[in-house]
Amino acid sequence: MREASLNAADAAAFIARLGEHLEYNINIMDREGVIIASRDASRVGSYHDAARRLISSGASVERVDDGPQLTPGVRPGVNLPIVYKSETVGVVGVTGNPDAVAALAYAIKTSVESMIELEAWKEKALKRQDSKNLLQNLLLYDDDAPRLTMEALSRKLGYDPCVPRAPVIIAPPADLDPADALAAVKKKGAHGPQDMSFLTSEGTILVFKSVCFGGEGFIERFEAGIREYLKVARASIRSPIPVAAWIGAFQTDLGMYRGAYRQALWLSERFPDPGSEPLFLFDHLLEFMSSRIPRSELFAALGSSLSLFPAGLIGELGSSIEALADCALNGKEAAARLGVHRNTLSARMDRVARLLGRDPRRDPMALDFMRLLIRYAQLQGSDSRRASSA
Question: What is the pLDDT of residue 2?
Answer without folding.
Answer: 43
